[in-house]
Each structure stands twice: as structure tokens, then as C-alpha cells.
Amino acid sequence: MINHSIAYQGVKGAYSEQACKNAYPHLTPIACDTFQEAMWLVEQGDVDIAMIPLENSTAGRVEEIYRLIPKMALHVIGEHFEPVVHCLIGVNGAHTDDLKYVASHPQALAQCHNNIISLGLKADAKLDTAGSAKELSESGDISRSAIASKLAAEIYGLDVLQEHFEDIQGNTTRFFVLSRKKFIPTFNKDKSYITSLIFQVRDIPSSLYKALGGFATNGVNLLKIESYMGTTTLDGSQFHIDIDGHIEARPLRLALEELAFFAEDVRVLGTYEKHRLRNN
């Protein structure tokens, strides 16, 4: 077991590692090849927690995570919002006038499309942002560049040629913090909380309307609802919802009692404090 550690998917310098360092500076980030590996390390007790991206304000939800959540044995103990600041980076001594190519993950290339065009660069899609920075450092080619985090530039000894290279600033990724141990913060009326859960409805008319009716009648606000096929038999849809409130608050308890009448396999993923950047 690696004590005081946090797992993430990606190579060193990934935006997920930056999120780990910002949210938990006292923990050692552990790079994993896949999301499953990161979750498995937590399940086995080899690391303390995992930082897993759930959705991005530009790219939308991370599909693979929604497929993994119903199968995992972990609990959500927090959320983290990480602003994504893309940097155009090059080898030591390079200038933007020297560049001909830029490499990165397709999403990063898309988010920097206008700036790439303005510099007349040819885009080269890679598996991830930090990996493109690592490959650039090994090439030593002054005509090549990468789009990655400032952390990646530092790790691989590269120069930041332009910070905030994204076309539109404000791009943010929301992460779940996953733990093997269940932890529900003590309810404090002066704090704001989110309760996340998943459930399945039968394939019958008005099933979702009936399942969610209890939240409306009890004045409980739903912050998010996502649907996806949760079974192999295609006989019903599974839903992930984020609820505005603490699970111990009376209105939410009553709403969940009503949900149990109309939904199957209701599973509370966790209750946690809202991240400070949520309202921004």
C-alpha cells in the first residue's frame, strides 16, 4: 500500500494529476493507465482515494465513467472542479515562429482550433495531452509543439510558449473523489451538499415521471440527471442524479422513500459538500 496517495488516469503531467495536486497537495499522485486501474487500486486499499473525471463543460460527460460507476464498490466522498488551462509548449529555445506542428488529445486540439489556425500549425492527434508533451521532449524538434498543462511542461523540461491557448476560457472539468470507505459529512445547515445516486426504472409509461415525483412534492432540487442503458437486457434505463441537499435532511429522506416505490436498484453513491467553484 502506498500511504497518503491518490490515483488518477493518465501519465505524469495530465490535467488529472494537476487536479490531484490542487485538491490534495498532501497526497502523492499515482498515475494509472486506465480508469479501471485507478478504481481498482482504491478498492484493493493500495491507495487512499482516486480522482476521476466525470464531465467537462466543453466536451460533456465521460462516457466510460458512467459505464464503470454501477459496477464499482467505491463511495463518492467529494467533488472537485478543475479549470483547464491549455498551454502551447515547445522544446527549450523554441519560438512560435519556429513551429510547424502541434500535437495533443483531439479534444484539446478542438478547444484550441482558432489559435492553431492563426499560427498556421498542422494538428497531430495523440492519445492524451501529457503524452504529447512527453513525446515532444524526446524529439527535441524545434518545429514541433504540444498542447498540455503547465505542469506537463515543468515535468518534461519544456518551455511554455503561450498560456491560455484555448479559444474560449472557462473550460472546467468536474471530478468525483472516490474512496473505499464510506464517509458522510455531519449535516450543517450553514453548508451546501450534494447527494449522488443511481437507480433503474422499468420500461413502462411514465416510469421516470413517477420515480422523480417525490422530489417535486417535497421541494427537493435536482442538479443533474443523466440516462444510459444500465443492463444487458435493454429492458430499462439507468439514471444518475445529483440532488441538492444532504441525505439526512428530512425533505430528501421523504423524497427517497417515494423513489423506492417506483425505482429499482436505488444506490446512494455518496453525500458530500459542494465544491466552492460550483456556483461560478
Could you say which structural class the secondary elements and strand pairing correspond to? Answer: alpha/beta
Summed over residues and divided by their number, the pLDDT gives a mean of 92
Q: Report the helical percentage.
A: 25-40%
Output the helix-strand order. EHEHEEHEEEHHEHEHEEEHEEHE
Unreliable spans are: none
Largest sheet: 6 strands, mixed
Backbone CA Rg = 21 Å
Q: Count the beta strands.
A: 15
Number of helical stretches of at least 4 residues: 9
Cα end-to-end separation? 37 Å
Range of strand content: 25-35%
Shape annotation: elongated
Blueprint of the fold:
Blueprint: E1 5-9, H1 15-23, E2 28-32, H2 35-43, E3 49-56, E4 60-61, H3 63-68, E5 75-83, E6 87-90, E7 101-104, H4 106-111, H5 113-118, E8 122-125, H6 129-139, E9 144-148, H7 150-155, E10 159-162, E11 172-179, E12 193-202, H8 207-217, E13 222-229, E14 236-244, H9 250-262, E15 264-273
Parallel strand pairs: 1-2, 1-3, 7-8, 7-9
Antiparallel strand pairs: 3-4, 3-11, 5-11, 6-9, 6-10, 12-14, 12-15, 13-14
Q: What do you see in this structure?
A:
This protein is of the alpha/beta class and 280 residues long. The chain has 9 helices and 15 strands. Strand 13 and strand 14 form a beta hairpin. Helix 8 runs antiparallel to helix 9. The model has no long low-confidence stretch (mean pLDDT 92).
